[in-house]
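Good morning,

Attaching, inline, the backbone tokens for the sequence recovery test we're adding to the shared suite. The designed sequence is right after.
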């Protein structure tokens, strides 16, 4: 439920701002602003990214099924690019939100010289920082 707090607040704030603009006689501006708030809410919602799991659980599952682990964080445009370009196949990966999982953040820092650079994709125990989405798709195909 906590994952829906920010998107809900964005929709409510956008609605209030749009209502105020409509009352002032600016329906065009109100519609544009409401669309912007809705887009921000969608990008920050759990609808974009598959459900995150803990780093240890993701690594355990990856050993069993061979699928890559993706370490990401909300608001990261490179994570968003990876997620969108992977399309439906993104649901087959194991996603770890480093802002919610300290072990995930530690794994990313260990792989990136102390930096929390995301997305970091771990394939067969080897980390790859901000890889090309097509490469990730290929890795997913070879793990299946």
């Amino acid at each position: 439920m906590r994952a829906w707090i920010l998107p809900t607040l964005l929709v409510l704030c956008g609605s209030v701002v749009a209502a105020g603009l409509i009352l002032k006689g600016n329906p065009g501006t109100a519609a544009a602003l409401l669309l912007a708030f809705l887009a921000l809410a969608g990008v920050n919602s759990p609808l974009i990214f598959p459900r995150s799991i803990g780093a240890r659980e993701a690594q355990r599952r990856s050993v069993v099924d061979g699928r890559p682990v993706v370490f990401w964080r909300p608001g990261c445009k490179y994570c968003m690019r990876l997620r969108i370009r992977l399309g439906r196949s993104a649901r087959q990966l194991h996603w770890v939100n480093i802002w919610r999982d300290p072990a995930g953040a530690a794994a990313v820092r260990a792989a990136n010289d102390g930096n929390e650079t995301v997305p970091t994709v771990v394939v067969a125990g080897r980390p790859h920082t901000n890889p090309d989405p097509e490469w990730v798709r290929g890795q997913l195909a070879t793990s299946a």
